[in-house]
Design goal:
Elements lengths: L1 H8 L15 H14 L1 E4 L2 E6 L16 E4 L5 E4 L6 E4 L5 E5 L8 E6 L5 E5 L4 E5 L6 E5 L17 E6 L6 E5 L5 E5 L5 E5 L12 E6 L5 E5 L4 E5 L5 E6 L4 E7 L2 E6 L15 E6 L4 E5 L14 E6 L5 E5 L1 H4 L13 E6 L1
Helix pairs in contact: 1-2
Length: about 350
């Protein structure tokens, strides 16, 4: 009982408890849940409320886990899953719209991106391909990579387990982070022809340990998450190194919105599992590389303000943040018995 009371005291401030027997552990836990949901997360004008029970899945449909999330120009939310329905689309209120892509992907869907023209890119590190779809996702228009035929590992040739892709709005070129079996970025023309590549294994500027996500701003600067090096590197369109932001814990997910970049940080590395304060959080930087806002409990979990394994991130027109997680791979699969955990959440701009 004392431990529950101490836990409640972390969050309860001048709360009048009503009802019978208010000192029971159950009542304290209800209070904690209610107050955590109304808590403000973040700082400096980028502050958020957790939106409980977002979204609503049709009966019998499962995510398993969600490696990616993206928002189109109509504020439809596309959630990339590792379940039977690879892409599930919701409105911003969390109402189900449709599913897409059944039979087109492996169980290792990895990265999701929606471009300026609402075209959709999906990186599949199981098939070693990037698939492109038209607006709405119903029509597949292109596939880059030889399906199920990876390039030799560390060869620098496209692809060995690519992680994400983005489109440069000024010319339509596709930039691809090639990620688990290469330390490389590849560039293709908008019609799928190879142009050039850069990067190699290493810790120096312009080298990568694991290029895991990629984004492009309206000045054609290319941002590459280098996850195991705990940094983001910034390049010009030709791959020339420009800048580096360090000390970001295993940055996994990244999206540009207005004057900020939103980053999902993964939890501890092998040997540091369960360590508090290492990852499982969202960090928001300005485009000069200054940390502006951050939230995420030190302990991983499925409660408000908690994460297991942020892997995708998106922002809608109202500034609400959507965080997708590979929570089954990181945590749920290791439970006895294994179980599916929350893998998508929404935080509304306060």
């Amino acid at each position: 009982m004392r431990g529950v009371a101490q836990l409640a005291a972390r969050y309860v401030r001048d709360v009048e408890v009503v009802g019978s027997n208010p000192t029971t552990p159950t009542r304290f836990l209800i209070l904690i849940k209610e107050i955590k949901m109304s808590e403000i997360y973040g700082q400096n004008g980028l502050e958020y409320n957790y939106v409980p029970d977002w979204p609503t899945l049709p009966e019998g449909m499962r995510f398993i886990e969600c490696p990616g999330v993206a928002v189109d120009s109509l504020d439809n939310i596309y959630v990339l899953t590792r379940g039977d329905h690879p892409l599930i689309v919701f409105d911003k209120e969390g109402n189900f719209i449709k599913t897409l892509g059944r039979g087109l992907f492996s169980n290792r869907t990895h990265g999701l991106y929606i471009a300026h023209d609402d075209s959709i890119l999906v990186a599949d590190d199981g098939l070693h391909t990037i698939q492109k779809f038209g607006p709405g996702g119903d029509d597949k228009v292109m596939e880059i990579g030889e399906r199920s035929h990876p390039a030799p590992i560390w060869s620098g040739q496209p692809f060995n387990r690519p992680t994400s892709a983005a489109i440069m709005a000024s010319n339509g070129d596709v930039y691809i982070s090639d990620g688990y079996g290469n330390s490389r970025v590849h560039v293709y023309s908008g019609d799928g022809n190879y142009r050039f590549s850069w990067g190699e294994p290493g810790i120096e500027a312009g080298q990568f340990i694991r290029p895991h996500n990629i984004a492009i701003d309206d000045k054609d600067n290319v941002y590459v998450v280098d996850r195991e090096a705990h940094r983001i590197q910034i390049f010009d369109p030709n791959g020339n190194f420009m800048n580096m932001w360090n000390n970001i814990h295993r940055p996994d997910a990244m999206v540009l919105w207005k004057d900020h970049i939103y980053i999902g940080e993964l939890n501890g590395m092998t040997g540091m599992e369960g360590a508090p304060g290492l990852g499982h959080r969202v960090s928001i930087y300005d485009l000069a590389g200054n940390l502006v806002s951050r939230f995420g409990d030190e302990e991983e979990g499925s409660g408000p303000g908690q994460f297991h394994a942020p892997h995708g991130i998106a922002v809608d027109s109202e500034g609400s943040i959507y965080v997708s997680e590979v929570s089954y791979t990181i945590t749920g699969s290791r439970m006895d018995p294994p179980r599916e955990l929350r893998s998508i959440s929404k935080y509304k701009l306060a």
